[in-house]
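Fill in residues.
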């Protein structure tokens, strides 16, 4: 269970403006119901010399690049030097880290993207947390609701944790690489520095420093 904790998945909480929120919890999915309220409080404290408030509860760093065709619904914070590209759709409750990339036609909802995260091409990321420098390949998505609409359970090799959440996408640790066209099913947790092969359908827990090939075939990085 320790490998599923915030401490193990995210090695430096200074790499996100959500540091204070994450420090309050043990498991990362515990913050999902709190993201919107946290952004509202945090936004009012941001330095007006560095951030500009636009519309209803949307704060955008003055060094960020936001395409005129992008849509951002609050509450949301777009960090310094972030890039929000053509036709991105940010639905709300989104904290986009410094230097992050939200790509063309990418959709975000109720998420925390650590600094330097890249979701650059046709991604859907909902009810999820993506660690520092994690990257989702083109067309890869988080599936955040089970087909039977039951509450999500995190299933590891030797343990199961009831989350009490109906909506829960994926928790990606630092520097995770997700291959193109992959689906991260509800309740997926991928440990830091792990890789997911393209076109994978991922469930459960992928340990850190691993390569997820297919099904239950997970090998340790050499």
């Amino acid at each position: 269970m320790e490998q599923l904790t915030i401490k193990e998945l995210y090695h430096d909480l200074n790499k996100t403006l959500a540091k204070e929120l994450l420090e309050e919890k043990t498991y990362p999915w515990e913050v999902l119901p709190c993201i919107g309220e946290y952004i509202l409080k945090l936004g009012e404290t941001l330095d007006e010399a560095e951030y500009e408030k636009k519309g209803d509860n949307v704060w955008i760093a003055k060094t960020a690049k936001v395409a005129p065709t992008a849509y951002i619904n609050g509450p949301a914070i777009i960090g310094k030097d972030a890039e929000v590209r053509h036709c991105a759709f940010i639905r709300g409750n989104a904290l986009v880290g410094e230097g992050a990339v939200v790509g063309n036609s990418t959709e975000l909802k109720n998420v925390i993207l650590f600094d330097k995260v890249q979701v650059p091409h046709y991604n859907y990321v909902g009810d999820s947390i993506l660690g520092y420098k994690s990257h989702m390949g083109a067309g890869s998505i988080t599936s955040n609701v089970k087909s039977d609409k039951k509450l999500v359970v995190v299933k590891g090799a030797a343990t199961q944790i009831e989350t009490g959440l109906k909506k829960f996408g994926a928790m990606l640790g630092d520097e995770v690489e997700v291959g193109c066209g992959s689906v991260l099913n509800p309740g997926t947790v991928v440990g830091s520095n792990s890789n997911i092969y393209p076109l994978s359908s991922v469930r459960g827990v992928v340990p850190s420093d691993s390569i997820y090939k297919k099904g239950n075939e997970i090998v340790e990085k050499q």
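The longest strand covers residues 107-113.
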